[in-house]
Request: fold
Amino acid sequence: MSFSLRPHHKFRKVEDISPEFLRRKGVELLILDVDNTIAPYKTLTLEPAVLEWARSIKDAGVRLFIVSNNKGQRPEVFSKLLDISFIKRAGKPSPRGVREALSASGVEARRAALVGDQIYTDTIAGALAGVRVILVEPIKFTNIFLAIRYFFELPFRRARESED
Ligand SMILES: [Mg+2]
Reply:
């Protein structure tokens, strides 16, 4: 897939990404960002709606894999809750963590997608690794810097493809 700062698809939250949508796009592996994508910063639990969504994705035969820049315990805590693998300190926008997840899963880049809430880390890492990029809205702005960064992302937050 060609490189772009714009995501292929955009949803408000991860729970809006349906198993049917992923099947239509031929996605076998969905790589998850953690912070502000599946949980707000600092929490150590997942909302029931997110757990239920993850189960529905796995039930549909799509594998999940956490690739997070987080250096703390959250990637591991959430990977245990979801019973999936994880990579932390991924260094996005470097594509390294995404590529590691692909090779650990044995899935080709064109059969994988990454979902995250940021342009300058998630979208770039996904684009450099050649996977489909799905952008969601950040769950919560916990400080002014997140809001400022979001402002500078706005020119790129439009999706390139329609949802069908
Ligand atoms: Mg994030």
